[in-house]
Design a protein that fits this description.
The structure holds two protein chains of two kinds. By secondary structure, chain A is an all-alpha fold. Chain A has helices spanning 2-9, 13-43, 51-54, 58-93, 103-128. Chain A is 80% helix and 0% strand. Helix content of chain B is 73%, strand content 0%. By secondary structure, chain B is mainly α. The chains are: A mainly alpha, B mainly alpha.
Chain lengths: 132, 102
């Protein structure tokens, strides 16, 4: 998204659009991976308030509760991000976002960086620490 | 807005590879060192903070903003950290009984 902004400011509209498309594809890929991950857990009978999960220790119930809430919320942010990026593409096509008027793209890029920043913390906390 | 003019695509790509390297360290760390959970948490969060600084400085172009703007962000981060630290103390010492007055 940031590189797309640089392209747009330099007047390279098609490059800017290509980078937004790449971001959308990568974020959909992320959501697909998370879908399979959630499905694997639900297949094991682990989902909020399931019998198997409720039989586990308090710590594990807490972990999976936080895990589902926070990855789920992150997923919602990504879906919102994809919608915003599609909107940005629409505005670029309508010539509402140009190399001189790029505020919307800049702010969407900032939002996207923030979503990325959240994952920087969620990933080690949920996926890595348990391996220690 | 002149501030982002200094940010180039090559800087973006360099930062990307730096973040990628840090992510590899994140994944490899528990296999390389067999440490306590608390130490793993500290190391992992330390790496995350470095990544946050990189993203904030370059991707969110804070490095190119005015000092006032950077201080505002810093104050917000410190305020948020205070709440995180208070909560962390509660989580860590929750199961221990300390009677302060006896």
């Amino acid at each position: 998204m940031g590189m797309s902004l640089i392209n747009l400011k330099n007047g390279e509209i098609s490059k800017a659009k290509l980078k937004i498309y790449i971001t959308i594809i990568l974020s959909i890929l992320f959501l697909v991976i998370k879908y399979f991950e959630w499905m694997a857990e639900i297949h094991h009978g682990i989902y909020p308030d399931s019998e198997i999960l409720n039989a586990k220790s308090h710590g594990e119930i807490l972990f999976f509760g936080l895990y589902f809430t926070m990855t789920g919320l992150h997923g919602v942010h990504i879906i919102v991000g994809i919608a915003l990026m599609l909107w940005v593409l629409f505005l670029i096509n309508k010539k509402k976002i140009t190399s001189a008027n790029y505020l919307v793209l800049e702010n969407v890029a900032l939002y996207w960086d923030l979503v990325h920043l959240v994952w920087v913390f969620l990933f080690p906390l949920f996926y890595i620490i348990g391996r220690g | 807005m002149e501030h982002t003019q200094t940010l180039t695509e090559s800087v973006f790509i360099k930062v990307f590879f730096a973040l990628l390297a840090l992510t590899i360290i994140t994944i490899a760390q528990p296999y390389l060192m067999s440490t306590e959970v608390s130490q793993t948490v500290s190391i992992q969060l330390f790496i995350s903070v470095i990544k946050t600084v990189l993203i904030g400085a370059y991707y969110m172009h804070l490095k190119y903003e005015s000092p006032l703007f950077r201080y505002i962000v810093l104050v917000a981060v410190i305020t948020l950290s205070i709440f995180f630290i208070i909560t962390a103390f509660d989580a860590v010492y929750r199961n221990e009984t300390y009677d302060f007055f006896s």
